[in-house]
Automatic annotation (TrEMBL):
Domain of life: Eukaryota
Organism: Lutzomyia longipalpis (Sand fly)
Protein name: Uncharacterized protein
KW Transmembrane helix (keyword) present: yes
Regions crossing the membrane: 37-56
Keyword set, alphabetical order: Membrane, Transmembrane, Transmembrane helix
């Protein structure tokens, strides 16, 4: 179990240090190519998630400010 975990850990460390372009040029059928695709996909998903969260919170903030402004208008 320890050996498996260590291997997995090493793989995860290598996962982000793989140079995709050189791999694709050397051997198109390389197993690591799948890691590249997976890594790029994961990075893309993470980026989308951050963008979504940013815009979602920004939108909520704007809506809150508008509600506050509307309340102030009613008060005055």
């Amino acid at each position: 179990e320890i050996i498996l975990n260590r291997k997995y850990h090493m793989r995860m460390e290598n996962f982000f240090s793989i140079n995709c372009q050189s791999l694709l040029k050397k051997d198109p059928r390389n197993i690591k190519k799948e890691f590249c695709v997976l890594r790029n996909f994961l990075l893309f998903v993470v980026l989308l998630k951050f963008l979504f969260l940013f815009f979602y919170h920004h939108r909520k903030k704007i809506i809150k400010e508008r509600k506050l402004l509307d309340r102030k208008k009613i008060d005055f």
